[in-house]
Amino acid sequence: MRQIAGFFLILCCFPYLLLFGNKIFAEYSTAKDYVETIQQNIQPREEIHPLPVTMYDRNERVFSEEYVEWRQPIQLEEVPEIIKQIYLLSEDKEFYTHIGFNVSALTRAIVANSQGSIEQGGSTITQQLVRMRYLSEEQTYERKITELFYAYELEKAYDKEEIFEMYLNEIYFSNQVYGISAAASFYFQKPIAELTIAQMTFIAAIPNNPSLYDPLKNFDKTKARQERLLDILAENKIITEEDAGVYKNEEIILNLRQKKQQQPAYSTFVLAEFKELVAANEGYKKQLATAQTVEEKKTIEKQINTKVQELLQSGISIHTALDPEKQQQDEQKINAILGNGNLQSSSVVIDNTTREIVSVFGGKNYKKFDFHRAYQAVRQPGSSFKPLIVYGPLFETTSYSPSSIVSGGKFCVGDFCPQNYGGGVYGNVSISTAFKHSYNTSAIRLLNEIGLDTAFQYIEKFNFQSIVPKDRTYAAGLGGLSLGVTTLEMADAYTSFIDGTYLKARSIRKVTDNSGNVLYSWPTEKAGVWSEQTVEYIRALMNDVVTSGTGRGISSNSSYIGVKTGTTNDYKDFWVAGMTNEYTTAVWIGFDNPSSMQSLQDDKIHFKIFNTIMN
Fold first, then answer.
1. Which residues are part of the catalytic machinery?
2. How far apart are CA 542 and CA 474, in angstroms?
3. Pairing of strands 177-178, 70-71
4. Which tops the pLDDT comparison, 200 or 20?
5. Across residues 419-428, what is the average pLDDT?
6. Of the residues 249, 282, 304, which one is the last residue of a structural domain?
7. Looking at the structure, do residues 452 and 571 belong to the same domain, yes or no?
8. What is the largest CA-CA distance in the chain?
9. Which of 84, 72, 66, 88 is nearest to 191 (CA)?
10. Residue 466 scores a pLDDT above 70
11. In this structure, what CATH number is given to the domain that contains residue 539?
């Protein structure tokens, strides 16, 4: 009977269709953007709305949220019965019996609008859902007629319970809040089921006119409508008159949910790592590695970005290794050390046990999505690169030890003739002495002995993204690269000196969907890089740097500390990379527009930062 009545009413609408045909077809054209399939009849599709991205620290506490709209979808069975009754009684009493539109309500609306106004719509819950999903709010006859067709087709495509659930999840509660569950958490910071009846009816009052009943701007008007809704519930015997009076007198105190945007340097880095995680898990990284042309790489990058955006809008949770107390303390102290002026810094602190990134410094007074110096700034590493490209490979492939002898005198390889700091020329010294005083001529002699191919075979085991084929020169043995490395990459590579194994450092522990299912996580298998002997040698050499070499002034309360320092040509970059028993880190200081820091050399600012974040 419902279908027969529907067809009959639609036939009656044909004169209006002829009269307003062009405008209706224009509305249909707009609607096509939101419809999954249009065949003989209009078939609506599920809308995809952006949901919040929530980041958790290592203690499973939320520290950052990303969203434009606040939504928390809920199933109909989870919605309290009194909420359902409020909307059924106030918006659409015949919801469970009509065919998408209410014929009697339409008749009343036509009579009311015959005086020249078209404000009276006689809209059902289904029609309201149609407007939210597919059509505009424009007050025209042609749009209203189109609305009837959509409502009728929507009722054919979904059952009543599905339509009601969609409606309760999509109605607008002002302040970019959509859905009854989201409204409860936004205005009271509670699940909908834990609200009092007074609170339930208060937020239920908003969607009737979200601007007029915005409780942040017009609290009294929202309260007045809440009381009208309580009266409707009492009139329909859902609650008693006495209870309605009690609920009206209950004080409504809003407890607004503020978007959490803590630790911007860490959360910005997490989003960048998330893209890398998706690319690795979905096979895009391998595709990029084998791409033959620039156009092919651009296509793959576009696919990665599309996939990442889909995931970010799906309401994922990103569980991280952030140590919030350490992150906050590190930022405050480094900012204080840097002081005023343009001097910048970056650092990354990695937990030795888990290889997880616990703290990141992206730059002085860092703000969300600023240029992130920890993973985006590519700089020359200077002598801090030597353990990775010279001394590690040397001990791994020869019989040399820290006590072996090497000359610190003048040396050239082809036309490359490095000089020691200050132009010093030294005789035969131990490798330990050459390392802790950072003799450049000794390092290049040793690099020449093992060969560039051997040295770069070890560099390729790490995650250096900006090292290119033309970097295969002897200048690389002193950290002279075409582009350079990032602070993150240096700290990451130095973790191989913890125990000889390498596992790419990460901030993300896992990514889950709305239901808690794990979508992505990093592999946990470590790769062997250095032998136990090599690790023992390198750690001893780095400790010598602290006790009697270029790292004097660095200290730690750990039972072990070892570092390698680095200074680039013209004093444009100062580095410290190293570890304690607990953490591995790299610290860089410099100016964004590279210029000499020779006047700051004696201040040892990078040492102060290292000491601060490692103690």
1. 91, 383
2. 22
3. parallel
4. 200
5. 93
6. 249
7. yes
8. 106
9. 72
10. yes
11. 3.40.710.10
293 domain-assigned: no
SS3 content of the chain, % helix, strand, coil (to 5): 50, 15, 35
Query: What percent of the chain lies above the pLDDT cut of 90?
Result: 78
The angle subtended at Cα 41 by Cα 35 and Cα 45, nearest 5°, is: 25
Strands 344-351 and 583-590 come out as: antiparallel
pLDDT at 157: 84
Note whether residue 97 is domain-resident.
yes
245 lies in the same domain as 359: no
Whether 542 contacts 387, CB under 8 Å: yes
Q: What is the CATH number of the domain that holds 47?
A: 1.10.3810.10
226 and 349 share a domain? no
- In angstroms, the CA 229 to CA 330 distance is 52
3-state SS of 320-347?
Answer: ECCCHHHHHHHHHHHHHHHCCCCCEEEE
| Final residue before a domain boundary, out of 227, 249, 271 | 249
- 374 with 240, same domain: the answer is no
Can you read off the two tokens belonging to residue 215? 């409780």
Model pTM above 0.85: no
- Let me know whether 363 and 491 are in one domain: yes
130 or 406, higher pLDDT: 406
Q: Tally the domains of the chain.
A: 2
The answer, yes or no, to whether residue 289 has pLDDT greater than 60, is yes
Mean pLDDT, the chain, rounded, equals 89
Each residue of 23-59: pLDDT tens digit?
A: 544 554 544 443 443 233 345 455 567 888 999 999 9
> Taking each helix axis from N to C terminus, what angle separates 264-281 and 294-312, rounded to the nearest 10 degrees?
120
Output the pLDDT for position 17: 44
The answer to the question of residue 225 being in a domain is yes
Range of the domain at 159: 2-249
Q: Is residue 267 part of a domain?
A: no
CA distance 191 to 195: 7
Q: Which three-class secondary structure state does DSSP give residue 107?
A: helix
Mean pLDDT of 179-195: 96
Question: Are 197 and 82 a contacting pair, CB within 8 Å?
Answer: yes
Instruction: Please report, as a single letter, which amino acid is at residue 299.
Output: T
